[in-house]
Write a structure and sequence with these properties.
Oligomer: heterotrimer
Helix content of chain C: over 70%
Shape of chain C: globular
Chains: A mainly alpha (about 550), B alpha/beta (about 270), C mainly alpha (about 350)
CATH class of chain C: Mainly Alpha
Number of domains of chain C: 1
Largest sheet of chain A: 2 strands, antiparallel
Strand content of chain C: under 5%
Number of domains of chain A: 3
CATH architecture of chain C: Orthogonal Bundle
Number of strands of chain C: 4
Amino acid sequence: MNKSITIKDIISKGLIAGVVILSLNVIGFITLLGERELITGWFSLGHVFLVATPMAVAYFTTKNMDYESKAKPIGVGFVIGAVSAIPSIILVFLETNTDLRQFLANVSPALTEFLTFGQGVVAGSFILLLFFAVMSALASFVGLLDKKIQHPLVTGVAWVLGIATFSEVLLIRIRDTFGRGVAKFIFEGETLNPIIALFIFLVAAGITLWWDQKGDGIKVTFAGFSPQKKKQLSKGRSLILMVVILFLPLLLGSYLTEVTNNVGIYILMGLGLNIVVGFAGLLDLGYVAFFAIGAYVMGVLTSEGALGLDIGFTFWTALPVAVLTAILFGIILGVPVLGMRGDYLAIVTLGFGEIIRVLAVSDVFKGTLGGAQGILQIPKPEFFGIRLVQPEQLYYVVLGGVLLAVFIATRLRDSRLGRQWMAMREDEDVAEAMGMNLVATKLMAFATGAAFSGLAGAIFASKLTSIFPHSFNLIISINVLALIIVGGVGSIPGVFAGALILVGLPELLREFAEFRMLIYGVLLIVMMLYKPEGFLPDERRKRESSTDEELSLAEN
Amino acid sequence: MSIILSTRNVIKRFGGLVAVNSFEIEVKENSISSVIGPNGAGKTTFFNCITGFYTPTEGEIIFDGDHHIEGLRPDQVTLKGLSRTYQNIRLFSKMTAIENILVGQHKHFKTHWLEAIFKTKGFIKEEEEALEEAIRLLNFVGLSGLGDQVAHNLPYGAQRRLEIARALASKPKLLLLDEPTAGMNPNESIELMHFIRRLRDEVGITVLLIEHDMKVVMGISEEIWVMDFGQKIAEGTPHDIQTNPKVIEAYLGSGAASGLNLGKGE
Amino acid sequence: MSERIKQIDILGVVMWFFRAAIIVAMLWGTIATLMDNPYSAKAWTDTIVAGIAQGSLYALIAIGYTLVYGVLFMINFAHGEFFMSGIMTSTIFIAIPMSESGYLDANPVLGLIIIALVTMLVSIGVAILTERVAYKPLRGAPRLVPLITAIGASFFWQYYFRGLYGSEVKPFPLIDSIAGKMTIFGIEILKSQALVIVVAIIMLIGLNLFVIKTKVGKSIRAAAENKDVARLMGIDVDRAITITFTMGAAMAGIAGVLYALVFRQVHYFMGFFPGIKAFTAAVLGGIGSIPGAALGGLLLGVFESVGPALFLEGLGVPSPHQLKDVIAFTMLVLVLIFRPQGILGERLAEEKA
């Protein structure tokens, strides 16, 4: 599909890109990311986000364009980039001449400094314009390249950016594993050495180039294997995966394991909400309530502080009580909303979540739940006399919970109950006419979801050793909802992917923390508009010809 | 032949509107019969009353001996042995064909969800049998090999058949088909007509149809009730109906073009 | 006939019991409080007046929910952010500079009109942008999909404005001429509260007339009734939808100004709870109905204000005023469970279900 492009189009597209960058600038996003240098002496994450918008606009505008000579699309890219710099240049001039900071908290001299590359207003603005224009022209140029060259090029850049972005974490791991020398060789300070960056780029691009040429052949060889051999291969792969999961803390070290544990808690919640929202189609915005209930039950039963009941509960005996209480509340809160339509159900569950949080903060239950001061001195879990204090130890508690939840969720999904949920999600009336009891089916979904969330809450309380009502606000529910939507509603692997992306990444990139909810908001909109099935959608299971199941597994 | 379904004085009002006005039918066991009538006559409302989607304002519906089913929920009606399809196909569109049929078999599943979690022998056996049965049904309606297709990807005619297969999966005694040939071309309609007859002859199910296509109705029905403005205006064999002046008037009067074609079935 | 007996399901009994329990608790609390009578008559009237003023704000915000739900059948979760965005912007760019230069005290009427206009413009801009980007491409999608994008939009705007103006609370300037109290019918009332009530009444009546009498209003009602038929009648449905959002956002903008006058502070998170409560008000009154939104807003405002003291104090609940939000959310839950069509609700709630 080829399109011709008018000057007006080019300018308006450039301006749209420009306004987006302007927005990112005035809310302080770019300045904040500017603090994370990627390649020593070269550029920061802020630069990447700054120039990504015009580059993307230029790429998509010129990709399907008609052209006689290659100069035309490249020229268009150049103009788009140049135009998109204008709003930011205006901002720079405004900032230097007036005190914008009294109005806009993040429009500061630091921003001007960043945007002008520290070269003064006039020269700096010119450099900015040129930077945008050249990079956008480059994006257009890359769009013209043959796939064979384009693919390795882009992959190489992506690897460099990825490694550079997470250099802080990688640095620690490499230093701990290979010693200070190696770390110093790869990283300068906390950023990637330019030469190493070039090396990474060449390796990644080279491998991609090789794979593009030879990969198909290898795939064919694989496809030619007998079913038995494929089965062996897939078994081997599962085995490797299991070993990696089992020894993950050794691989990751303390800090990353702690992050993984947090991700794990969200995975646990996500698996539960996935049953309620994904399988049964009931949008629950008050899901955090069950997390809170699980945590508070654990807290009250086991705390060694003033609020603990001190009736001999340990982590392991309190755990089932916490889960059962969550289930009970799942049913109690589920009953009144049974007859309710989807969107009203969402709001009512949100209301329930808030009621529970406000009650926890208030003085009403201060005597038992501690009001705003929360519950302190909750002991960490004990295992055969060993107190699990380190993240590496707690990892196995979280892992156990996650594995149990995955197991139950998978089994239920593939049973009659799972089909009932999905049928109900598709068409409630017809599902009822098939003879199923909607009340029982919905309550089962709420109860299972609440159970997983309660389990997550109980582990959370014990892991943190203290809980406060403000940890259980609506944001948690939205986080969990966002992660199952990003991963793929109704997909169990999707929960893992979503949690890694939405919970794992922001923990590694502290800069994102402040804008986490903003990014979630954008993600919710973008996913619904362009990828409603998520990144790892649930694959319809093959049943009729069950022997083919391994086949489809081996292909992926 | 005994009566499997009889409705007595069934009335359904929506505010001031009387959609079904003391409509009475008696469906004989192992028969194929039809309710016909111009658009908006209240046929689907009547079906909805029978299947529990609506509670009739007045009247009794007696099914399979002495079960009163008026006012039961749809799931309870289904458990009694009644099953239906819908005028505008209502499959579980994102589930596969096989899954649709498996959902239809719902009432025959006995194992508890705990057995599903522990994958007990009973559960595995039940699932295997259900799958076998589903594939058998799929083949029976002529959709062999399409089991792993997601329902909304199937062609229109196949969706109609799948809906019937899903309805059959609950092993009903009485099958209610709401305009099964809507949107089909004449060839497909005739094919479906033969299929409905096979259902009765081979599976032994009683079939009650709502249908617009007179060719189909006249071709396979043993008994026909004609509905207009919620009331029964005629009943009898196809021959009786074709010659009944009231029926002709109802169709001509309401200007339904299809009514003109009260042609011979076969 | 045994089947019929089974039909009286346990669920219905549970729900009935639930309803009775709440009524008993409310009555008990009320009687106990009144017997004890810890507050003076003046304290009660003050609470009720504050409730009416708060309720007027809810009513104005609820208009946006009601109009959009009437036309699109979606809960515009981001509506609270329309309310927040306008007043945040005009506080920082207009009100504070105007106050510092002394203009606002010298020309309070003109000053407030300028503030109101800027607030409305920003709110409308945010609303239209949200509608274009996040809702319009999803027309005809399953109901939950636009609800999810609306949640996304809500959080996006909150944190966008947090980034713009910072996370701290901004004071809205005090205007001398509406500071202090006045006496109407022997009741002492804050001037700012009186202003809120008067402005809200004028806006609500004006809007209702606009929707009933004008051609544009009729096109909106036609689109609410049946979009396809409206299109056949030559009505530009997309334009009607945009106008709906515009009107809702304008009302939210006005509500923002009034909020700032009463509470004298603005904050990036200020739209969230008023938004959800205004939705409660809209449902309480009967979603889709403008008089319903007004009634629902008033009822919610008064209940929320009087409720903690009246219902809870007598039950021996410690510091009941912390539970203001619980009263509001409980009302939300109860209304949606027992009377989703609301007090003045028409067929809408049931039919479009």
